[in-house]
Amino acid sequence: MSLQSKINQDIIEALKAKDEEKLSTLRLLSAAMKNLAIEKGLEKDAELEDADAAKVVKSQIKQLKDAMADFEKAGRDDLASQNKKEIGFLSEYLPEEMGEDELRKIVKQKINEFGEPTAQDFGKVMGAVMKEVGDRADGAMVKRLVQELLAS
User: Fold this and answer.
1) Is 56 helix (H, G, I), strand (E, B) or coil?
2) Whose CA is closest to 152, among 116, 127, 128, 113?
3) pLDDT confidence tier of residue 139, bands split at 50, 70 and 90
4) How far apart are CA 81 and CA 33, in angstroms?
5) What are the φ and ψ backbone dihedral angles of 35, each rounded to 5 degrees?
6) Please, are residues 111 and 84 in contact by the beta-carbon 8 Å criterion?
7) What pLDDT is attached to residue 151?
8) Could you give all domains of the chain from N- to C-terminal order, each with its CATH number?
9) 98 near 137, Cβ under 8 Å?
């Protein structure tokens, strides 16, 4: 079952369970996926590939995290907690990310492939690591590890 099919099925389940919060979040996600399908020029009922669907989910989570940070700055804990719930709903649709230890090994391996890299080689190392790990790792964590290991 594709990721988009699973989301559509979960929308139906949320409707039946009368889970308004989850339903609202999943409908927004579904709309974002339909928008991407239109941008890509897909047929009316065609589904996105799982990689594209996962990018949409990540994008929605990033938007919610940004909004949550703004709400916390403004002292709106009620809205921040709502966004946290929505992030929890959406996180169920992402593949599990790599742990820091596993990622650290890959970063060290890529740094060693460059011989004696300096801080100026940051972009090259970062690109090589991201090419290998793809969507399985958080870009911010990769950046932090590359900077940390290049500095040492």
Assistant:
1) helix
2) 116
3) confident
4) 25
5) -60, -40
6) no
7) 81
8) 3-91 (1.10.1510.10), 100-151 (1.10.10.410)
9) yes
Tokens of 41: 């020029």
The pLDDT tens digits for 103-120 are 899 988 988 888 777 778
Which residues make Cβ contacts (< 8 Å) with residue 94, sequence separation at least 6? 54, 57, 58, 61
pLDDT of residue 62: 92
For residue 82, give both structure tokens.
Answer: 């709502």
Residues 150, 125 contacting (CB under 8 angstroms): yes
The two three-digit tokens of residue 147, written as one number: 């900077």
Compute the distance between CA of residue 66 and CA of residue 55 in angstroms, rounded to an integer: 16
Distance CA 33, CA 58 (A): 12
55-76 residue pLDDT tens: 899 999 999 999 999 999 999 9
| Identity of the amino acid at 80 | A
pTM: 0.73
Structure tokens of 6? Answer: 């699973």
* Residues 4 and 48: beta-carbon distance below 8 Å: yes
Distance CA 114, CA 97 (A): 25
Of 131, 64, 136, 57, which is closest to residue 49 (Cα–Cα)? Answer: 57
